[in-house]
Amino acid sequence: MQYIPPANLRGHDLAPLLAARGLDADWINLHDFDPHSPQNVARHTYAETAALVPFHYRTATPSLPQLRAWIDGLVAAAKETQEERHSPIASITHGPSLLLLGVCGVGKTHEAYGAMRELAVSGVYAQWQVTTAADLYAALRPRHGVDSEAEFRRFRDARMLLVDDLGAERKPTEFTEEVNFRLINHRYERHLPTLITSNADADQLRARLGDRVTSRLREMCERVAIKGSDRRRRAA
Hints:
By secondary structure, the protein is of the alpha/beta class. It is built from eleven helices and five strands; from the N terminus they run H-H-H-H-E-H-E-H-H-E-H-E-H-H-E-H. It has helices at residues 15-20, 25-28, 38-50, 65-85, 108-120, 133-140, 148-156, 174-190, 202-209, 211-220, 231-235; strands at residues 97-101, 128-132, 160-164, 194-198, 221-225.
């Protein structure tokens, strides 16, 4: 793993994320020149994660206790696997998934990116792929010069995957239904950690995603309902 100097993380507002883990700036800024130290793993992972977080969510922090418990579980499992395999670093490879439900604007995406950022500073390696459902479908539509199956495998096999706005399509097509099933079924069978947001409630999800997908989501994900009104409308 590449060594990342502490200076590269200045200005990223990491204090709330570190405090939630019982850590501080002195911990992550340890300049020990060890590429396998938890501090360097945190710096390396955060650098990768920050590149995936949109500017709007650059300072996001998670507030939901279920998200914090999910992060704690992934970190603990990664460290346990590290000890069993005598690996130089702790890395997330398998684990449970989380489904955040709520109407538009209640903060689902903010919470999801906040969770990515907090997990990144834990000292455990987490490698993400990030997409919205709409962008996923667009990337996989057959077109000249693009290997759609290779694109699909990039998301299907990701160690950690965030899918934002799943079930936003009110009238699913045969194509989107196939993509949803292949993606969710693959990750369900292999216990690949997936963070999903949706503005559909349980009944709407079934109608938009079908019984096969919702059945797997029910088993693989803890469902977290976020209450409230549209924050964007209040801000406007």
